[in-house]
Write a structure and sequence with these properties.
Layout: E1 3-7, E2 14-20, H1 30-41, H2 49-52, E3 57-61, E4 63-64, E5 67-68, E6 73-78, H3 82-85, H4 113-120, H5 126-132, H6 137-152, E7 157-165, E8 168-169, H7 177-189, H8 200-215, E9 222-229, H9 245-254, E10 259-264, H10 267-270, E11 282-285, E12 290-293, E13 301-302, E14 305-306, E15 311-317, E16 328-330, E17 337-339, H11 350-373, H12 378-393
Antiparallel strand pairs: 1-2, 2-6, 3-6, 4-5, 7-8, 7-9, 9-15, 10-15, 11-12, 13-14, 16-17
Helix pairs in contact: 1-6, 1-11, 4-5, 6-11, 9-11
Bound molecules: flavin mononucleotide.
Length: about 400
């Protein structure tokens, strides 16, 4: 079973990703992991923090001579900003540093501040926001990069693009699935494309939405779409609620900070259509010896099982809650009405959300892949995968 967890706070010394269950013998492309971390840091609308950090993955265990050894993989990502915070957030109790604490007592509506302070009995939400912060997602992306490397061995590729920022939305009329996929590949390869929108005019409109929010001291949300290409049919299961691939994907995407809705395929639109306009009719390609569909409204999952089409998942991100013109709040100590706290902040995080979404989808797919094909070594996983391909050929 592939399992992963993270540790570390936004302004603490470092973040940690722990990933166990990868088969032994998986080559680790360190440059690829590094590039994934960089991709998360890019985007239009990010705050000053990204100029401080140079996220670098330091492998602490589970990888030797460039390959996994079947042991848990531990990755450390240093927080360069820690040097500005170690007096405020010392690991050891140092009363001398009390004066340097940076308490947050005016909870921000929409952040974890108030709910977390009540839960953990803090009258200062600092420790809550430190862990709730999406800085944690750097560790997810490191783990996700390893999941992508496993999937890549079997031809599966996971990418994302931005389909909406504020009111600016990508129009998709007349775009074939193949054209879209190659457009997504080219925006993902181009690190200069700040929003990873596949249509240049829409990208300009998206930028304008972000600039307008920035000028107004506000924030803006949007939608990213993750597409997993060449996913074999048969991942996940219809048999139990917690084995359903769509359920696992939804949970993984929903867990991304500020994501408030998840859509698989054309799920939202489908709710207002008739059945004949929503299901994807089935054909058989005799040359490839595979069943195919001319449409993919299901987003590659039927009955909780991947059906061989691209897996398509959207994350709907709300505008982030730290605002330069803050909303009303109540002080955690005095209970008096105050304006919510402001800390250096992003304005729009949807492009980064897409990269984190890729990581979460890759982790879910890699997990479901290992449940189906197993294998303690990559060679064993490959044998099982190839046996299944033969079964599909002869079906
Ligand atoms: C990549 C990324 C960066 C974020 N940056 C900020 C930020 O700078 N300021 C902020 O208030 N929220 C930011 N958020 C959102 C908060 O982390 C999130 O709203 C908060 O943890 C509460 O969780 P919830 O919105 O999922 O309920 C960011 C989210 C993501 C995915």
């Amino acid at each position: 079973m592939l399992q992963f967890s993270t540790a570390g706070e936004s302004h603490g010394p470092a973040l940690i990703a722990l990933l166990s269950g990868l088969p032994a013998g998986l080559p680790v492309d360190f440059e690829f992991v590094q590039r994934e971390l960089l991709r998360r840091q890019l985007g239009f609308g990010r705050g000053a923090r990204q100029r401080i950090e140079r996220d670098t993955a330091e492998f602490l265990g589970g990888v030797y001579h460039g390959k996994t050894i079947g042991a848990p993989v531990a990755v450390r990502i240093e927080n360069r900003d820690w040097s500005n915070w170690q007096m405020a957030l010392p690991v050891e109790a140092t009363p001398a540093n009390d004066a340097q604490k940076r308490p947050l007592t005016a909870p921000r509506p929409g952040h974890a501040d108030l709910a977390g302070a009540l839960k953990f009995n803090f009258h200062d939400a600092r420790f809550v926001l430190e862990r709730a912060s999406a800085r944690e997602t750097a560790a997810r992306v490191a783990a996700g990069a390893l999941a992508k490397l496993l999937l890549r061995e079997f031809g599966v590729e996971v990418l994302s693009h931005v389909v909406q920022i504020g009111a600016a939305r990508l129009g998709r009329e007349g775009l074939s699935r193949a054209t879209e996929w190659s457009a997504i590949q080219s925006v993902c390869d181009n690190l200069e494309s700040p929003l990873r929108c596949i249509e240049p005019n829409t990208e300009q409109a998206m930028k304008a939405e972000i600039e307008q929010a920035l000028r107004a001291g506000n924030s803006v949300g949007g939608v990213f779409e993750v597409v997993a290409h060449h996913v074999p049919p048969g991942l996940g299961s219809h048999a139990q609620w917690n084995e359903k691939l769509d359920g696992m994907l939804a949970q993984a995407i929903m867990s991304i900070q500020s994501t408030k809705a998840v859509e698989i395929g054309s799920g939202f639109n489908g709710a207002s259509q008739h059945g004949s306009a929503v299901q994807d009719e089935i054909q058989y390609d005799r040359e490839r010896r595979r069943f195919t569909r001319s449409s993919n409204r299901a987003g590659g999952v039927e009955g909780g099982i991947s059906n061989g089409e691209d897996v398509v998942v959207c994350g709907y991100m709300k505008p982030i809650s730290t605002l330069r013109t803050p909303l009303e709040s109540a002080d955690l100590g005095s209970k008096e009405a105050v304006r919510a706290a402001y800390e250096r902040s992003d304005v729009c995080v949807v492009p980064a959300g897409g990269i984190i979404g890729e990581s979460m989808v890759a982790l879910v797919l890699a997990g479901a892949f290992l449940v189906k094909f197993g294998g303690d070594s990559l060679a064993e996983t490959r044998r099982n995968f190839e046996g299944y391909q033969r079964q599909l050929d002869q079906f």
